[in-house]
Amino acid sequence: MPDERQQGQPAGTLTLRDVVQITYSQSMRIIIAALLFVGVAILGIVFALLLDQSGTESPWWTYGFLLCWGLVMLAVPYVSATNQFRKQRYLREPIQFSFSETAIRLEGPNFSSQITWQVVQRVRETKSAFLIFQSARAAWILPKRFFANNDDIEKWRQFAIAHLEKPNQFRPAGWLSKRF
Q1: Sorting pLDDT into bands at 50, 70 and 90, what band is 46?
Q2: Which residues are registered as beta bridge partners of 12?
């Protein structure tokens, strides 16, 4: 594998931050539910303090449970990403992407993989990366920092859209994805 980035062939090394960001972006439903639990718990605690219903059964255990459950739900994607990054050696090695008219190739010192564009179910863009999905839950992470400049990112974006079976298989960064 070449040490230097060749034109049109993004390369680099994934970081724990890359894997954590992608895991959280993929877990958005869990994050929203966790934030709702935490929000309801905080509101419940505030109202319980304001109302101070001394003679009634205390709702603290309910709000405490909701708060703890929400915090655990917020922590699960981070723990999962950290374990995945620690256990899967290839995630910590230099990688290089190659794109042709028919296929996408991903290479590292100890692995190589190739898929045709027909196998790609969708490409999703986030603030810092592109996710190239081969199934509903399995995706290659292509960080935008692997590209030489913003022009290369835009060229690749257009190249990907042109090579997907349907243009709607490319999902640009939405409002939330642009921020995380």
Answers
A1: confident
A2: 95
